[in-house]
Design a protein that fits this description.
26 helices, Rossmann fold, mainly alpha, 64% helix, 5 strands, 4% strand
Length: 565
């Protein structure tokens, strides 16, 4: 539930740890069942996979098909195309790989991806595709059938995955977040607990202490963590160990903490939790997709309520009936039905992807806007100016040049230094340079203002802003550039630091260039909208809406944001 509240924007900034708790519980339950059947000599891979199919596939198939139908009615072509691709990935059990390659889980475009949450299902599916086979092969060796050797083996796998996760959050953060090798240790936490057959705690105070510590290990990160915390890595240990502690504390007798978690409303949420996870994210995405202002608390609560209703219907009409297994052991009909369901999702996803989101379903006004925007995007694609200029490229004079050709042996007549806003304006600078027959250069980096002494607070900014600035200054000095244009989202950086600090850095920067005999031209920021303006207009045109509700920014609001500058 904390995942749902986190996604709905109703508190719990670290609510994403709910997925990690789910992994631990899943690992414990499934490993317990597998080992029970293996030890009894009744385990069958076909039986196991059939149970997994009955548990997972019916509900997710219906959810994906309903999401595709809603996407057809509500999404713009580019987003429907992406939805089709993600449906293909889900049908092939590689959603996590797809979103690793395309999406930052904490990025601004997540509310355009209704199936983003299926990444965790793919992690679980991949784990249970290989884990039972590993256990069967392990148990063929008499020594490894014993508890201690099995725990040692699982512990080694756990350690390898955890170490990889700790390394990955710094070196490959997106891959570490989405992929099985760096998430397997969370499932193996539950597996280790099941394989160790740890005896339940007989001491009441030990049981209660462990249970409450476990609950704190889950809730504290849910309140304290946010998107800036490197995750999973070591940060995922508290919620995972917390979940394991609660399971162990209640192995023989229920603790008070578990009694609270076993209250009727909480038990009901547990029953529908899978369907709730499936439906909450599409509901949130489609609600956010059409917003032009921030969602109210009432709207956010309504999203949760609608998700609960859909989850209840899914549990009663789909989950529960399909879990019941008919008499006999005929696996073929179940597997055939599963393949058919996956092929349906795959086919629809391929159609939406290959048709480019089928733009002809749009009203004429929206279709006209789409073509216009595509033309602009194509022009920008032809403008090969890198967003992030590396310091070593600047040191080697390999920067993006614009305007007229300069005489050999001379530098550009002006240099644009700035962040992504300066990069966005680069085509305009080139047009002006061509018109006035002058030469220029563009040196930019996302989330990094062109200020001497700036220390980045944004993870998307330059790793070493001091080196970036010093190399940029040396480039200006070395090439005898007479004019430097500084452009950035100044108001944003004023919010990140302070007016006094930004003023000092700006004065120092201008003084440094001035001492070199360079003229400094400071450009103000254009109006900054809280929404994607072309996309909002497209969405309005989708339903032939007027511009009355367009989120215009008044001159007063713009001046207010720029007041500090």
């Amino acid at each position: 539930m904390i995942v749902v509240l986190f996604h709905a924007g109703l508190g719990f900034p670290g609510g994403f740890v709910g997925v990690d708790v789910f992994f631990v519980i899943s690992g414990y339950l499934i490993t317990s069942l597998i080992l029970r059947d293996v030890n009894a000599g009744t385990f069958s891979l076909a039986d196991f996979w059939e149970r997994r199919i009955r548990r997972i596939l019916p509900a997710v198939t219906v959810c994906v098909l309903l999401t595709l139908a809603a996407g057809w009615l509500l999404l713009l072509p580019s987003d429907l195309l992406a939805l089709g691709e993600s449906a293909v990935a889900q049908s092939l059990m590689v959603s996590n790989v797809y979103f690793w390659r395309t999406t930052n889980y904490f990025g601004g475009d997540i509310f355009e991806k209704p199936l983003l949450h299926t990444w965790s299902l793919s992690v679980e599916e991949q784990f249970y595709l290989f884990f039972p086979v590993l256990l069967i092969l392990t148990c063929r060796f008499r020594l490894l059938r014993q508890r201690i050797p099995l725990v040692v083996l699982l512990g080694l796998l756990f350690s390898l995955s955890l170490v990889l996760s700790i390394w990955g959050v710094k070196n490959q953060p997106y891959a570490t977040f989405y992929l099985l090798p760096t998430r397997a240790w969370e499932l193996l936490t539950g597996s280790l607990l099941a394989a160790s057959s740890m005896a339940g705690l007989t001491s009441s105070w030990k049981r209660e202490t462990l249970a409450w510590l476990g609950l704190a290990g889950i809730l504290a990160p849910a309140f304290i963590y946010d998107e800036q915390v490197p995750f999973p890595g070591l940060a995922a240990l508290p919620p995972c160990l917390g979940a394991a502690a609660i399971i162990w504390a209640n192995a023989s007798q229920m603790s008070l903490a578990a009694s609270l978690l076993s209250a009727a409303p909480v038990r009901f949420i547990g029953l529908i939790s899978y369907s709730l996870y499936l439906y909450h994210w599409p509901v949130i995405v489609f609600t956010n997709y059409w917003k032009t202002t921030e969602l109210s608390t009432a709207t956010r609560l309504a999203m949760v309520l609608v998700s609960l209703v859909l989850a209840t219907l899914s549990w009663r009409l789909i989950e529960a009936p399909f879990r019941r297994r008919s008499k006999g052991k005929r696996h073929l009909p179940v597997f055939a039905t599963a393949v058919t369901a996956l092929l349906i999702m795959l086919s629809i996803g391929c159609f939406l992807s290959l048709s480019q989101g089928y733009p002809n379903r749009l009203p004429p006004t929206a279709l006209e806007l789409v073509k216009s925007l595509e033309g602009e995007y194509q022009k920008r694609a032809l403008f090969k100016c890198p967003l992030n200029t590396a310091p070593e490229e600047i040191a080697a004079d390999r920067v993006h040049l614009i305007g007229s050709n300069r005489p050999i042996g001379t530098g550009p007549q002006f240099v644009v230094l700035g962040d992504s806003h300066a990069h966005l304006a680069a085509p305009l600078f080139e047009r002006v340079a061509n018109e006035y027959n002058v030469s220029g250069a563009v040196i930019t980096h996302a989330a990094t203002p062109p200020l001497q002494g700036w220390k980045n607070r944004d993870p998307h900014g330059a790793k070493d802003p001091s080196l970036l600035f010093s190399n940029s200054f040396e480039y200006v000095k070395r090439n005898n550039v007479k004019n430097v244009i500084l452009m950035a989202t100044w108001a944003k950086y004023c919010e990140e630091s302070s007016y006094a600090e930004l003023t000092k850095l700006l004065k120092d920067t201008i003084s440094t260039f001035g001492a070199n005999g360079t003229n400094v031209h400071l450009l103000m920021s254009p109006p900054i909208y809280r929404v994607n303006v072309p996309r909002v207009r497209l969405k309005q045109a989708f339903f032939d809406s007027s511009l009355d509700s367009f989120p215009y920014q008044s001159p007063q609001e713009h001046k207010s944001r720029q007041r500090a500058i």
